[in-house]
Structure prediction request, 312 residues.
Amino acid sequence: MPNAKGGIVDESDIAEWSRAPPFPDSVKSFFMPNPPSTPLRSLETSAPNIRKLGVMAKVAIEGKVKTRLGDTIGFDKSAQIHQRFLKHLFGRLQDWGDERHWVASPIESISRTTFTPPSQWRIIDQGGGNLGDRIRRWFADHVFDRPALPRTNAVLIGADCPLLSHADLDEAARLFRECDLVLGPAADGGYYLIGLSGSLHSSDPTANSEPHQRTTESDCPRPGIPSPQQILDTLWNDIPWSTDEVFDRTVAAAESIGLRVSTLPVRSDVDTEEDLTALLHQIEHPVDNEEVPSDDIELARDLRRILSDQTI
Prediction:
């Protein structure tokens, strides 16, 4: 390396530099500004979490869907109503999140219907087993399938609450900042929504923070976080499906392994003719004359047409 005189740096040059006075503070502040009080996040760790949405619902085959509703209004009408619910949800939620899945069963029966979901939706087979096995399979494939950042937050809903909106899913996503599991309790004791965060296994203590948000002690990884396998083996095992104990037993299972649980407002599934009547009343006679979304009004009109044997 040449020195200031054009020669080669030798030991005398190094000795002279070591005796030089330090930079004045004014020079330091100009060339070397004080570092930020908190470390800057790397580009990798500041990547937002991936949001996935699944709608777990059967294909609308007469006599195979909404059979409790079909017992009173006819299985042909209940199948049409189920398909109309799917159309409604797929339409209004087609741009929410990064990935959208119709988790369907039986997948080979889709070709027997005239219904095709919008192109924004990917069709995935539910697979076999009971309801817990099928829910578990989807979360195993779409939450804990990503060993590196960014992590995945996944939300799974059914088709029995057709008025779920962007706002409801946004609230579920917001709750992931402070919890690991989000549940939407149903009035019958089940749940209409379940969401699981993959961020609790992130090695980045700011993975759930907003960009440029100061990291606090509460943001740091918690001790004793259950493994992905433990979560998958606990949340959907020994649950008495189709009973009024599903929600409470799921919360107890989650808390038994240290998961933080948050809940959304209670909603009613549409399983019976009474439930359907209540849904139509909710749309057609809103509380305090609040504005009803136009697609909800269209849904109610189509449901009325189905009930009166009109073609939609």
